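User: what does the whole thing look like in 3D?
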Amino acid sequence: MSETKGKIIKISGPLVGAVGLKGVKMNEVVRVGKDSLIGEIVELHGEKASIQVYEETGGIKPGEEVVTTGSSLSVQLGPGLIGSIFDGIQRPLDVVRNETGDFIARGAKAQGLDRKKKWDFKASVKKGDKVSAGTVIGTVEETPTVQHRVMVPPGLEGEITVIESGKFTVIDDVAEIKDSSGKTHKIQMLQEWPVRKKRPYLEKVPPEEPLISGQRVIDTFFPIAKGGVACIPGPFGSGKTIVQQQLAKWTDAEIVVYIGCGERGNEMTDVLQEFPELEDPYSGEPLIKRTVLIANTSNMPVAAREASIYTGTTIAEYLRDMGYKVALMADSTSRWAEALREMSGRLEEMPGEEGYPAYLASRVAEFYERGGRVKCLGADREGSLSIIGAVSPPGGDLSDPMVKNTLRVVKVFWGLDDDLSSQRHFPAIHWLRSYSLYGDALRDYYEKEVGEGFSDLRKQAMGILQKEESLEEIVRLVGEESLSDKDRQVLDTAKMIREDFLQQHAFDPDETFTHIKNQYRMISAIMKYHSRALEYIEAGNTLADLKPGKVKEKIARMKFYEDEKTEDFDKLDKEIEKLFASSSSEDDITDAEDEKLPAIEGIGEKTERLLIEKGYDSPEKIKKAGVETLAEIDGIGEKTAQKIIEQLGKKSADKKQAERKKDSQ
Amino acid sequence: MKKEYKTVRSIAGPLFYVEKVQDVAYGEIARVRLPSGEDRLGQVLEVSDDVVLLQLFAGTAGANLDNSAVKFLGKGLELAVSSEMLGRVFDGLGNPIDGGGEVIAEDRKDVSGLAINPYARSYPDEFIQTGISAIDAMNTLVRGQKLPVFSGSGLPHNQITAQIARQAAVRGKKEDFCVVFAAMGITFEEADFFRKDFEKTGAIERSVMFLNLADDPAIERLATPKMALTAAEFLAFEKDYHVLVIMTNMTNYAEALREVSAARKEIPGRRGYPGYMYTDLASIYERAGRIKDKKGSITQIPVLTMPNDDKTHPIPDLTGYITEGQIILSRELEHGGVYPPIDVLPSLSRLKEKGIGEGKTRDDHSAVTSQLFAAYARGKQAKELAVILGEEALSDEDKKFSKFADEYENSYVAQGEYESRTIEESLDLGWELLKMLPREELKRVKDEQIDKYMK
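Assistant: Here's the predicted 3D structure for the full assembly of 1120 residues, as C-alpha cells:
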C-alpha cells in the first residue's frame, strides 16, 4: 500500500481542506494532522480534496500533514461485537475510557475488536470441503444466546486446505482456502467491510412474520414485520426514545443493534446500566448478551454522527448474514440528516429544502433499503434485518423534509402526539394517524399463530376509535345528552380501548411486556363487551340501568394477567356474558310480549335464529317443547337442547327469587 | 515572541479577516490591539491558506484596517480555575469584576470542554428536593439532570430559579453544594436580583457568578456558558462539589449565535438560526451529569424565554430535544394569580421514574402523580367544554373534575415564594385533593395505596 502525503490548507469545523493527495479516491480514509485524526474524503476538486474529520479539529494548523490509507471507512466484524458499546467509527468506548479518561479526548487509537482475547473456535467444515462465500466454516459461542458463525468472506470460493478447532484470537489464521486458480487464502475470524457498501445476499424475500414487541398498540394495531422498516416521528417529550428502548428490550429479534445518534449521553448510560440487569423474555439471559450499542452523543463530533448510522447498519447486516433475525434501532435519524446538512453547508453545496442537501432523499431511501428479509449467501439460511428509525422533526412538524423523505420508504408509521403525551397517555402513538402496511402480509400469521378473527377484531376496534373522533366533535358542540345510547356505548368502548389497551406503562414491570396471545384475548374481551352491550341496547334496554362496575374494573386489570394464562380470560368472558344476560333477564316479561328471545348464556346467535325460525320465539314455547323436540331441529344437538332448557330454568328461578325479594321489601 | 500582524483585510460585523498569517490553529485565541490602544480578545473560526477568520468577543467598533494589530496567543480560550472562585463574580470572559483581584489559578482549562464518555457516566437517579410541589412531585429534578425552564417575557422565571437555588437539597445528606450562575444578556436589575438573593441567604459564599449583561458585548455571550461550565466541571469532578448551574437566558445566547452566522453569510436553517445550532447547544447542555467513581455532579437549569410563548420556536425546540425534560411556565396561570405558574401537563422530567419511589421518595409517588396528571387533564378538558356549552351542560362527574382542576391550580401548584414543601407534604396534599373525586374514578392508584394514604 503506497502512502501519499498531502498538506492541510483549510480548517472549518469538522471540514478540512488539503492539497497534494494525488490519486486519492472518494470516501477513502485519510489520517489528518499531527494527531493523525481519522477523516474521510468527501469532495475532490482538481488538486484540492475536502475531508470530513471524525474528531475535534481545534488546534490543527494549515501545513500539517494528511496521509492516505488506501482503504475506505470500514468496520471490523467478528466475535466480540455483542455486548459492546462503540462510538460512531467503531471504537469501543470502554477501551477509549482506559486510554483517554472519563472525557473523550482526541486521537484515541482503540481497535474495534479485542485482538488479544482468545475465542473457542469450533470448525464445522473439514479439509477438502468445497466452500463458497457465506459458508459457515466454524462457530464461536460468543454469548449464551449468540453463536457467532464464522463465514467465508464475500467474493471467495474454493477448497478448504487447512482448518483447525481451538482457541484463537480474531487475527489468528483459522483456515486456509485454495481457490480455483490455485491461490491460497488465509482466513481469520476478523473481517473488514466498508460501511457505505451494503453486504451481499442471495435474494430478498417478502417478510411474513411479525416482529413481536409486547407493546399492545404496536403488535395489535400497527405491527412491523421481521425484515420490515418503520419510523417514529414525534416532537420532543413525546416518548420516541422510550418506544425505541421498549422495542430494544422486548422484541423477539435475536440480536438488537441500537444506535444512539446525536442523542443524550445519559440515555446510552441508561441502556448500559439497565440491559445487563434485564432479562430477555425469550431466552432468559441478560439483554446485553444480544445487544450491540453504537453511541454518538449530541456533543460528540458531528462527522462521526453521519458515520454512526452506517457503522451500525453494517454490523447489523453482518449478523443478519449469519442467519439471525436482527432489529436495528436508530435514534434519531434526524440528527444524522442534520450532520449531512452541516457537512453539505460547509462544502458550500447548493442546498435543497430547509438547507438539507439535495441527495437527502436518496440517502434515506438507501439506508432503509438495507433492511429486509433475505436468503443468505452460503447454505440454506435466512436472516432478517428490521429497521426502526426515530425522526425528530423541528416543532413536531410532519412537513419537515426528513419526515417526508422517510415516509416515502417506510411501511410503518408510528406517529407520536404531543397532546397525548401531555395527558400522559403513553405510548403516545396516535391511533388515527399511524399506519402499518404489513397488515395483509401478516394476516395469516396472526390468524394461525395468535387467534382466529384477530384481523377482524382489530378492524372493529379501529372503527370504534374512528367513530369516537366524530362523536367527540358532536359532544363538543351540543353536549353528551344529545347522544343515543348506542353512541354512548361507542364512546364508552373507545375509552376502554384507549385506557385499558392502548395505554401501557413502560416502567411497570408487570405491564411493560404483554404476550401477543394476551393482547388478542384483551381486545376480544373488550369487543365482546361492546357487542353484548349493543345487543342489550337493541333489545330495548337503557344503558343507565346497566351496572357494569365490577366487570369494567376487571377489564381494566386484564393487562396484569399472566402470559398465556387463558383461564383468567375465560372467566372474564363469562362474566361479561353474565352481566348482560342477568341485566336483560329483568326485562324478560316485556321481552316475551315483544316475542323476543332473551339472551341465553352459552347459546350463540345462530342457535337463537334457528329457534325463532322454527317458531320457538319465547321462553315459554321453548320450555313447553322440551329437550327431545328441540334436539330434533337441524343444527341443534341434544347437548345444546339440554343446555337451553337448563339455562331457561335457571333464569326463571333467578327471576322468582328476585320477585320474592321485592315482595318481602 | 509571537508575531504581530497588521494585515487585517476586512471587518464585517463581529468578524475580522486577517491575511498573510502563518502557523495559526483552528480555535486559537488572538488579542487584537485597536488604534485606541484597547485590547480585545477574538477566536479563530476558520483558517484557509493564509487567511484567518476571527470572531471578536467584544465587537469590532473602533477597529480599522490599517492600525489594528493582531497577535495569536497559541492556545484556545482558557479559564483559570481554583476553589477560590467560590464567592467571586466574573465577567462573561472570566475576568473578576468584584474588585477582589485575580484568582490564583490551580489550573488553566480550555473552556470548550470535552464530551463525557457515555461509558464513564453514571445514570442520574438521586432525588433533589426543591420544595416546589409542581416540580418535586410532578416533574421531579434529579442530580445530574439538565432541566430547563421554558418561560415567556414577563413571567417570573427569575423568582422560580432563585427559589430552586435557595431550597434545593438532597434529603438526609449534608454535602458540599454550590451554585454556578451564568448570566447572558440579562439586565442589571435581573442580575442584581440574583446577587441580592444569594447574599441574603448566604448562598453567595458558595456561588460563582459569570455576568454578561444586556449592555455587554453580545458575542461575549457565546463564551459565558462555556466559562461557567468549565468552572462547574472543575468544582464537581476535581473538588467533589454538587454543582447547580443556572444559565439565563439561553435565548440571548442563541441570538448571538445567529448574529455570527449571519455575518459569516452561512446558509441559514430554520428562522435564520444556523444549521449547527443543535450541535452547539448540545455542547453546552451535555456538560451536565455524573461520572462513575466521582463524588461531585453537575445539574443544569438553563432558562430561556420562548419568543411569542411558542414552544415550537427553534430555541426551545432544539433545547427540548437535548435536555432531559422541561418546566414550562404558563401565562394563563400567571394571569390567574398562581405562583409559580408551572403548567404541569406539557412540563416533563425524563428522569423522574428513576429518581422516585420507595427508598428515594415514597412508594406511592409514581401512582399518585399519575392520577393527579390524569385528573387534572380531564378537569381542564371539562373546563374547556364548559366555556363552550356553559357550566350547566357538564355531567356531574365533569363538574367534579372541573372543580378539582381549579383547586389543583390554586392550592397545589400555587405556593409561596419562600415556602418549601417536603416531598411527603406534596404527596399528601395530592391525596387530599383526590378526595374531591369519586373513588371509582381513581384508576391509576392501587386500592392499598388509597387505604394507606387517603386519610
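In plain terms: The first strand of chain A starts at residue 5 and ends at 12. The CA atoms of residues 262 and 299 of chain A lie 7 Å apart.
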